[in-house]
Design brief:
heterodimer; A: 292 residues; alpha+beta; 3 domains; 9 helices; 27% strand; elongated; B: 288 residues; 4-stranded antiparallel sheet; 6 helices; 8 strands; 52% helix; CENP-P (chain A); coiled coil (chain A); Centromere protein P (chain A)
Amino acid sequence: MSVENMEEVEVLEAQIELLQAEVEALQRQQQDNQKDMTFQFRGQMHDAVASVCGLGPGGGKERVLSRLKEEVEEMEEDLRQQTQMNGISLTSCTAKTLQSSGRKVVQQLCVSGRCSELDFQVEFKLSELTTDQRSQRTISDLNVVLDSSDLQNFSSFVSSVEESRDLLLFFRTLRTFSDRCDDRCRTFQHFQQKYPSVVSLPGGCRSEVMALSHAELSGCVLFVHWSVEVSREGGVTPKIELLTKIPDEALQLFPSRPVGGATEAFQSLLRILGAEAAIESIIRAISLQQDV
Amino acid sequence: MEAASTKGVLSHLSLLEVQARSRRSRPQQQSRVTELKAKVEALKVQKEQLEAEIQTHQNLQKLRSSLDKQCADEDDVEMEEDSENSELLRLMARHTQLKDLLHAHHLIGGYDVIKTRQGKGVCVSLATAYEGVYLDTYNLEIDLKPAVRISRHNIPPFIPVNSLAKENNMQTHMRAFLDALSQHLNAFAGRKQELKLLKEQHKSVEVMESNVLCSILVLMFTVPKEKTAVLCTLDYIDHSSCLPKRVHLECEDKQLPDSPQWKKNCSLLMETPVHTALTAMRKVGDIV
């Protein structure tokens, strides 16, 4: 072998060593990136990355673009379906990988969204442990934030959910709670439209209170107080009460049961007729309508 | 003549061999250099490719976080300057976001609905979990047309799927039905898991009887000092709950069930999962 050749070989070998080191460093950086970005690129996304990097397969950018567009549209449709079926609309989900070593992957997730009129944000750690083809997923460090003003009744439930890390229960209860609140809102609106001269909603249709009054009965107001209670275990129950505001003079004139015992009487009506019919009968009473 | 020609052939052959050998060794040197050069080229290409991929990653990450912010603020922020790949990159960023959102729906116990038979039916999944640990997932296939009807499922027969469907009016209130079913399945999964944890954590407590629905549990405790046995029956009358509605004690010592301490234990068993209640009872020395 000639001296010239030997020299060339040495130069090349040094160059290779340098390049290998650089490539390794880049590979490490790429792995770190993939850890942070929770998604791994497969299928159309893989082709798209290749295309952006100028390594696309035959067919060119146009085809990659249209295929990815198709896939994204399918996913949008899928998301619409899940949102509709679950009654929960998710606005953001960010994941950060905290640990990724062979069989165990730990991620920190933050999911926020809205259920009817309720905004929420949940944060938790998700560990996935793979052992002989089975994978065990576990949630820990659950933290729930609810953004709403009148949610004192939710607080003991939220703390019990955080303790038991029961994400599924939380969302099931949140949904039931929202459904019951929507029922109330619909009922309030229905009565306000049907009896506009009697029914008013001082706190808006989503509040707990509906006020009933009549022009000829000035000073007398009945309040339907309809709250939705959430137990520590996640049970959701509506609680409807009738409160009265009647001037003292009127009470002195009619000390008898019809006025004073209205609250208790309403509870029996509720039991017998159900919420809507009971409220309607009260409204008709205060409207001074004659039952024909 | 023959001999000479033979010799001539042999010598010619050996000459050819020497020539071939020397020819081969020279290209060998040459090929070592080309080989190395090729390797350098390959590594350069690999490096460029990695750099491009990392750059793409960074661009995607940037786009994705601006997408996430947009969603949160409902604010239309103008994207960065348009390059030839900007549309593709935007699509890719949305792809990653959609993937994460769909994953989140799955994690929070979403029903993972899939349309079947051109929209005439759906497949739904019901996840179960206990204390943060995801357990079995059950599936239902529901016909929507011509009528709403459960066509197939893999839910255990002792879960009253059909009566839950009727009670919750599945025809019009699909979600109410699924919520109720999910509650039942999660309660069942929870009771099963509690029994498993009980057996693992409390070897000194004997499980005398239990059923597949895990709605009846008969346990035998031993009171440390007197060594008397206490038979405890937990009755989970409400099948949609992980807590028993009735706790009954039986003991040779007729006074024991009525003692304040054991009355307290009974209410503890009705308010906390059985395995944690037993840990508390063992701590204060009521059971071995």
